[in-house]
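Pasting as-is:
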Amino acid sequence: MLFAKNEEIESERSNSPLDTIGTSLVQIWREKSCSYYTANERGVPVVSVACTGNYTDTEREKWLHTLFSHKYFLKSEKYRLQPGSGIYVYKTEYPEGSGALVYFKLYIRNATALYPRMPASGNQVAIYVQDLAELQDLIRWQTLGIPLTYGIIPAKKESQVLLQKVIEYGQEPWISLPLEPKVADATDGRTLSIQETRNPEEFESFLKEYLEDTEKIKGVSHRLGSLYTTNVFAMRALLEKLRSDEKKVIRYLDSTAYQDSVAFDTAKIMSFQAYKASANQIVDREKFNAFWNHLSTDSVQRTHILVVSASDVEFFETLKRHVRKKRSKRKAPIQFLRVSDLPFND
């Protein structure tokens, strides 16, 4: 144990909110695997938890659920890993909107598995295959043989089949939700408009058609949406519905890769696990090669999300050559993960 358990200290602990959540957090692991203590560092409350064991997706989901259920608003997640051990730091606000910070530190040792299974150095890359609507596109991308995240267009003929196949293949299904663009095209199909969002009946009608079943999906991103995603009211209304007790969606990906994003900032403010794309639709081969070469030579540990079109065969062929390049020829390691395996953005 990193923190020796002192029975006298244990008996003197109060029923403060920090002790309550500290007790809940150590219960994620088997009995006597963890201990916690609370402190005040430079005027900021800190709950430190030390565990002997693993910290995988399963433990992380429980950890985050515990924070959220105790009304702690998550602002960032950071970590530093070494073989067999890791330190995770969660910056939270409590209560939400107060500006008062509370830090949670998790120390893991003697682990055989650590979230998100990152290498000691190099880059982690998640590829988000956007607008999946055809089974043939799914089969093509599966031939890469790497972890992938798929954004399935809902309410299409093959949507349910694609959802089941993505799960069957051990990949990660998201929803690619069509939102109102600045310039509409007849081929876009139905999109959720700002006006519809302001009309309760039309809003519910859209959600019933496009978000009827969210139990099996890992998160939501948007397609199109160049107008909708710039409207704070519309984004707040949509995200509020997504995180409701009925939908229970907690992850949102801004696929635009713009530096300033109303959608991304709104999702963060509303305590979503918010992600932002590093690059979107790199169909220019030279530009993509330059980006990939940067990944291959950058030994600093970084995370990237590449958003690609499911039907973009040209980009697929370019990416396939890079993915299949022998690891020995890379100057820095690259690990492919799914979007939810990555730390969400601060």
